[in-house]
Design goal:
single chain, alpha/beta, 6 helices, globular, binds flavin mononucleotide
Length: 193
């Protein structure tokens, strides 16, 4: 049977009308069209406290961090869209990365990141589209053993970038975001197929 890549897609933002959630949805569609099996999740469905070593020492990882780790372990690659907060990675996303990076259930620290193929993107109402946050995210993930593809895209003026149906108003943006999903899918097929 031919190999079908498994891709986990999520945004590093929680709010319901998040433009990063719209961004990741389009990239996920691109991966689906290219033949991947895509799991699109909303981190809001996995609430966790801020990382606190006392919580970990007293009761281990929060249940939702464990659920996320298991999901991540079960996928070959990730699509991540994250907003830029104060020129860096969103605290929301960093909290999830920190919890899921911890050792658990026989898996060493960072097990759900090592060797995963990842493509990142961002959306921001500013002119740079959150690009500076991507530098930060790239640094964090690459030191965790993730293989980050060079392709990325930043959706600028994001508050006016999407139609009611979730598609991008600008075909260039739509194609680039779908292209990120396609690129990740094709890379995984070349690697494992
Ligand atoms: C605490 C905070 C800091 C922010 N800092 C930046 C920033 O440095 N650069 C930027 O382009 N946008 C910044 N923004 C604006 C976000 O890009 C904007 O709120 C964006 O829509 C958030 O992503 P979302 O639509 O997915 O929720 C900031 C927003 C917040 C709440």
């Amino acid at each position: 049977m031919s190999y079908q890549p498994k891709i986990l897609a999520f945004a590093g933002a929680l709010r319901t009308d998040s433009t990063n959630k719209k961004t990741i949805r389009i990239a996920a569609e691109g991966a689906l069209k290219a033949g991947a099996q895509v799991t699109l999740i909303d981190l809001k469905d996995f609430p966790v406290p801020l990382y606190d070593g006392d919580i970990e020492a007293d009761s281990g990882l929060p249940e939702n961090a464990i659920k996320l780790q298991e999901l991540m372990l079960a996928h070959d690659g990730f699509l991540i869209s994250s907003p830029e907060y104060n020129s860096g990675i969103s605290g929301t996303l960093k909290t999830y990365i920190d919890w899921t990076s911890r050792a658990h259930g026989g898996h060493p620290a960072g097990a759900c990141y090592g060797g995963k193929i990842v493509v990142i993107m961002s959306a921001s109402p500013g002119g740079l589209g959150g690009l500076r946050g991507l530098f930060d995210l790239r640094k964090v993930l690459s030191t965790m053993g993730v293989i980050l593809l060079p392709n990325e895209f930043a959706v600028s003026r994001s508050h006016d970038a999407f139609n009611e149906d979730g598609s991008a108003k600008d075909a260039f943006v739509q194609n680039n975001l779908e292209g990120l999903g396609k690129t990740l899918t094709e890379f995984l097929i070349r690697l494992n197929g």
